[in-house]
Amino acid sequence: MHKDTIKNSIREDASEEFDILFPERFIKNTDYYNSLMMMYRCAIREVSTKLEVLDDEFSVKYKRNPISSIKSRIKTPLSIYNKLQRLGYEFTEQNIREQLNDVAGIRVICSFIDDIYAVAHLLAEQDDITIIRIKDYIQNPKPNGYRSYHMIIEIPVFFAEGKTPIRAEIQIRTIGMDFWASLEHQLRYKKDLGNNEQYALITQKLTECARTITATDNQMQDIKNLIGEYCEF
Ligand code: GTP
Ligand code: MG
């Protein structure tokens, strides 16, 4: 696939409203776009399999599963388009591949904080995975209270014509962190939340919740450590 093959893929009449209603009609040259997205879907499958294998091995060795669930998604065409626009890039295959790290997104939900680091470490150790960037929002939470461990990785995906390195964003978090992030994410899309004062109050309450969840996550980890002192865990 050549770098500019999807350069003119955005329809002239594409508008946000149009895309939300008919996302599949947003793209003119769907063949090139679809094969690029297929590569991202394959990368997600590769990473998901690696995670499932790690979880399986762990459950045989330690009789419990570090991963509670795995979710994944491919960025929508509008979201890709908007992000490239925001960064000042055209909608081309090269720009999608070089400028965006999160077209393929995988979210790993763990029970305990130490499971997050165990999963991240075991994944990073695999020799076909290249770590592009790590952001540890558990050690350094965002001011609003957001916590998660983020990895941008590159993984080779094998196709008939050879292998291609594909980037993916992996977010690893506890059930509690996910609970908080889901509600906070929904809040950001509520445009009719009332005046600034009400919005500030909700934001403040959410930050308080993040603190409570952090305390609970830490207590659960302490309990797990105590149990671990008495039996193999
Ligand atoms: P993006 O341009 O949003 O992808 O940000 P970035 O490139 O600086 O990456 P970062 O690692 O900070 O965040 C990437 C992703 O993490 C977001 O797309 C969200 O899924 C998640 N995230 C980051 N911050 C928050 C937050 O404050 N709240 C919630 N709910 N999710 C967040
Ligand atoms: Mg993102």
From TrEMBL:
Pathway per the UniProt entry = Purine metabolism; ppGpp biosynthesis; ppGpp from GTP: step 1/2
Tell me its EC number(s), please.
Answer: 2.7.6.5
* Coiled-coil region list: none
Please give the SMART domains that the UniProt record associates with this protein: RelA_SpoT (SM00954)
**Alphabetical list of InterPro entries matching this protein:** GTP_Pyrophosphokinase (IPR052366), NT_sf (IPR043519), RelA_SpoT (IPR007685)
Keyword Kinase listed? The answer is: yes
Q: Which residues form the RelA/SpoT domain?
A: 72-195
Which SUPFAM superfamilies does this one have?
Nucleotidyltransferase
Its GO biological process terms?
A: guanosine tetraphosphate biosynthetic process
| UniProt keyword annotations, A-Z | Kinase, Transferase
Any one GO molecular-function label of the UniProt entry: GTP diphosphokinase activity
- Record has Nucleotidyltransferase as a keyword: no
Q: Which PANTHER family match?
A: GTP PYROPHOSPHOKINASE YJBM, GTP PYROPHOSPHOKINASE YWAC
Spell out the protein name for this chain: GTP pyrophosphokinase YwaC
Underlying gene: ywaC_1
